[in-house]
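Could you please review the protein record set out just below?
***
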Amino acid sequence: MGFSAIDYEGELFSCFAFHAALVILKVLLMVPLTARQRFAKAVFSNAEDARVHPKGKVSLVDPDVERVRRAHLNDLENIPFFVLIGWFYLMTNPSLVIAKNMFRLFTVCRYLHTFVYAVVPLPQPARGIAFFGAFLVIVVMTVSVLLAAF
């Protein structure tokens, strides 16, 4: 199969760049989401941070704060792989329709994952469906890159 040069002016690259930027922005938005939860619960990880809130206390085990932190960690464990393998995937000359829909699916799934995990927690399988939808996209792109390499 082999690899092709990326058309940086093409529709596919624009779509990928757009969705990569959206999910990177999502990771960045987890910082104020975590801070909001910390202030709402008056729970901080450092004594100097706790002093800025009248009722602030130091705790590393608040379940609501930890839920948001785990969602952030999950982003950090998945989104960089999407950006990296997506870049290589662009070089496999994929179908425009399939690739665009995979980028969209990944983005929607990651936003949904955060929503059902950290914003308005819903019972399983909501989080699992969102997680595995995005995970499947990474697997398909990875396999496509491996096949193109041989």
